[in-house]
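INFO worker-7 received task bundle
INFO bundle size: 2
INFO processing item 0
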Amino acid sequence: MQRFLSPEGFTFAVTLDVGTGTIKRVAFYALGLPLDTFPQGMDGRLKIFFDEVPSRDAELFTAIAWSFGKSDESYVKAEKSYCGGVVPILKEWKSTLTDKGE
């Protein structure tokens, strides 16, 4: 996971149970990975996902996230921009994009 996260900064998310304040999940996001950069062992599935899922954004955006919850609730997920201009929003928030070095 570490080799995919930008040393300049990365996105970290926390999911809370609103009723109890309990942390349900944390996730580390590698944003804007080049399309030929995938975690070992997942490269085939992720390549198919990124090749086949359409993006109608003016600027392509990809992300891989490592999500950790209680025991068997951990997983890796991939995301790709669809529409809505996610890259300008992330730039406005000053999020670090892995392949842009911003």
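INFO item 0 finished
INFO processing item 1
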Amino acid sequence: MNNNNNANGGAANQDRDRDRDRDHQIPAHLLQHAPRPRSVTFTISVMQLEYLYVTWAAARNRVHQQLYQPDLPFQPYPLPPVWPDETRAMMVLWIARERRIFEMEMEELEYLLGLRGAR
């Protein structure tokens, strides 16, 4: 008894599948690729970018205090600004980009210091 013929889609099974799927084709618009992320540009205003950098500096100070001066009292978190959805999305993308750049810089540092294998 040969059960592999059915499991691997034997010739008889393939012919039946072709007949059955002839009218069930995937529409062409579903097969098109989405634009590559590198071909899409995002803009963020100068004011928003300045706000991000100032807030980033404040975040660094908070982390520095947590690491090196944990006995000092922490300042309470300020209320976050209310952003329109589009601006909020841009900031999320910007932060993700900066995080990835930082990771790439740390990898390069490891290679330059000989802490990772040579390329």
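INFO item 1 finished
INFO post-check item 1: The radius of gyration is 27 Å.
INFO post-check item 1: The longest helix spans residues 85-112.
INFO worker-7 idle
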